[in-house]
C-alpha cells in the first residue's frame, strides 16, 4: 500500500495541465531528442548549433544579413520582427520541413534571440556598419584593366575629384584615359595601354596635377575609395570646388587596407574555431530558410497579419516572368553571353572599354575656323507691309534701283484718276466727240479704241506713271541727302 501511494504521488500533478502547455512540453522534448541524436543530421554526424563563445555571444551572425533573412527592414520595430520570426518558424519547424528543419529552427531561434535583445541588436548593427565599408571591395580594380607586364609594379591613377575635365590626358593617351559620361571627369580604363612616353606626356599636360603614379598594390583600394567620393559635374571656373572632400584619399588608402586585413584576419580566426561540418550545416540551413521564405526574403515585411495569413494558406509564389529587369542580372547575362560567343575574355582590346556607354573619347577632327557655322536667320514676328518692301536701297554709286521705289502714292493716283474719269463719263465723252471714225483693224478694233473702259485704263496708267516718277525723284533726293550726311 505504501509503495502504491508513493507511485500515485509520483505521477500525480499538483496543478491541472492545459493542452497548450502539454503541446509546448511535447515540442520541447522532441527538439531535445532530435538535438541529442546527432546521427540523424546530414552534416556528417555533427548537428549544427550556434557557435556561441564562452561569453555567450554568437559569432557567426556577422557573416549574414539577419534582417534580410527574416525579410524585414533594419528599422523594423520589434513587433514586425516577431511576426516574421513566427511565420518562418511555422514553415521551418521539424514537423513541417522534416529533418532539415532542426538546423533551420536553431538558426531562427538564435537570430530572433539576438534581434529581440536591444543591446545585442545594437552591437550587431554597429558591427554591420563597420563591415558595410567593404561592401563591393574585392581586392581588384573597379575600372582599369591591366595591360602592362607582370613585373611592372606601377599604376596610373586619376584623382577624379580634382579633375577639371580638360580632356588633355584623353587626347594624348586615348587608349589609357577616357572621360566618364556621368560627371565628365577623366579616368584610367586600361593600365599601360599606351607607351610610357605618351602616358608621361599626358601626366605633364594636366593643368591641376590630378594624375599620379601609384603602387600597383594600392590601385584597387584607391579606385574603390574614389568610387565612394561625392562629386558633381565639372564646371569651367576657378577652383572647381565641385566634389571637394575633407580627407585625402592617398592618406586613407593605408588605413582602409589595414582595416580590411583586420576584418579578414578576424573572419579567418572565426572560421578556424568552427568545424567544417558545422559551417556547412549552418550554410545549408540559411539557404534553405531563404528558399522556403522566398516571399519574405525578396520583399519587405510590411503587413504582419497579411503575411502570416498568406503563409498559412498560400504556397510560396514562383518568380514572375514579367518582373522588372535587374541591372546586375543583365550585366551578368551580358558578360556570360560575350564570354560564350567570343571565348576571349582575357584578350579583350582597349577599344572595347572605350566603346562602352560609361565613357567617351574626345575627337581631334574639330571644325575649321575658316568656315564658321552659319547662324540661323531670325524670323520676323510679323510680315512688313507691301509698301515697305519696295523702298529705296543704296547702290554702289549712290543711286536708287528701280524696284526700290515706294508705289503707294502712284497707286493712289491711278485709282483716283480712274474714279474721276468714271464719275464724269458724260463730260469726258462730250470732250472727245464721236471718237475715231475709221480704223485699220476693222470694226472690232474701232469699237475697242472708242470704248469708255479704255479711257479709264489709259487715265489710270498715265497717272500711275506720273506718280511713280515723282515718288522716285523724291526718294532719290532723300537718299542723296542721307548719303551726303554719312
UniProtKB/TrEMBL annotation:
GO terms for cellular component: endoplasmic reticulum. The keyword Metal-binding does not apply. It comes from the Eukaryota. SUPFAM superfamilies: 4Fe-4S ferredoxins, Chaperone J-domain. Keywords: Membrane, Transmembrane, Transmembrane helix. Residues 263-279, 328-337 have a biased composition (Basic and acidic residues). Pfam families: DnaJ (PF00226), Fer4_13 (PF13370). Residues 29-39 have a biased composition (Low complexity). InterPro entries: DnaJ_domain, J_dom_sf. Residues 381-392 have a biased composition (Polar residues). Residues 13-56, 263-284, 318-348, 363-401 are annotated as: Disordered. The chain crosses the membrane at residues 456-478. Residues 65-128 form the J domain. This is J domain-containing protein. It comes from Oryza barthii.
